[in-house]
């Protein structure tokens, strides 16, 4: 199974969580996993739509990885979806190119899981902030997987704090 990890962190140089996770993934040298760093490829947000679509055509599983910014994904990932999921390609008439593919999502969040439970009765979980993924992935004929979430990134900001999340992260990407 071919997997594309669409990484969308605006500042990997200062990242602790995503940097540690992605470095652990790189070390594994998985043949069937492509790490696709959007901010590195498109610092000016000028996305090569055809190249992105071709990459997705060859993937069975597409995983978004983003830190949570304002209860959402980072802006380049949103623009990437706006640009790449074109009418007539991803949805609408003849828009079947992503049908049957699996879509995963990996989040790192500054807050703890408990913070999310307690904060907002109308949005009782971080997952519920990302409910838009349900109709989005449904519209493009994909299968949305449960997320892999690493919480508490603002409480504990040392590499050692990320290490326990690595096995689950690697499993999520490769299973
Ligand atoms: C602009 C901005 C907005 C953020 N918004 C949220 C948020 O809504 N919820 C949350 O849990 N953390 C939020 N955070 C914290 C980040 O999610 C956290 O720092 C990041 O996941 C840590 O990963 P990293 O070490 O790879 O940067 C925000 C951080 C920034 C810079």
TrEMBL record:
Cell membrane recorded as keyword: no
Instruction: Cite the entry's keywords alphabetically.
Output: Oxidoreductase
| One Pfam family it belongs to | Flavodoxin_2
Protein name, as recorded: NAD(P)H dehydrogenase (Quinone)
Coiled coil located at which positions?
A: none
Task: Please give the superkingdom of this protein's source.
Answer: Bacteria
The residue ranges crossing the membrane are none
Q: Select a single GO molecular function from the record's annotations and give it.
A: FMN binding
Domain named Flavodoxin-like fold is located at 1-158
Q: Which organism is it from?
A: Bacteroides coprosuis DSM 18011
């Amino acid at each position: 199974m071919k997997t594309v990890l669409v990484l969308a962190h605006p500042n990997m140089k200062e990242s602790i969580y995503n940097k540690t996770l992605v470095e652990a993934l790189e070390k594994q040298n998985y043949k069937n996993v492509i790490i696709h760093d959007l901010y590195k490829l498109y610092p000016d947000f000028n996305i090569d739509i055809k190249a992105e679509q071709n990459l997705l055509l060859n993937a069975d599983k597409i995983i978004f990885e983003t830190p949570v910014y304002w209860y959402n994904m980072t802006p380049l990932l949103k623009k990437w979806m706006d640009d790449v999921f074109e009418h007539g390609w991803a949805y609408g008439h003849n828009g079947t190119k992503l049908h049957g593919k699996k879509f995963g999502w990996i989040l790192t969040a500054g807050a703890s899981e408990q913070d999310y439970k307690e904060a907002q009765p109308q949005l009782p979980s971080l997952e519920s902030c990302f409910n838009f993924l349900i109709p989005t992935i449904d519209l493009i004929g994909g299968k949305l997987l449960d997320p892999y979430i690493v919480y508490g990134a603002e409480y504990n900001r040392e590499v050692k704090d990320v290490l326990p999340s690595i096995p689950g992260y690697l499993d999520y990407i490769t299973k």
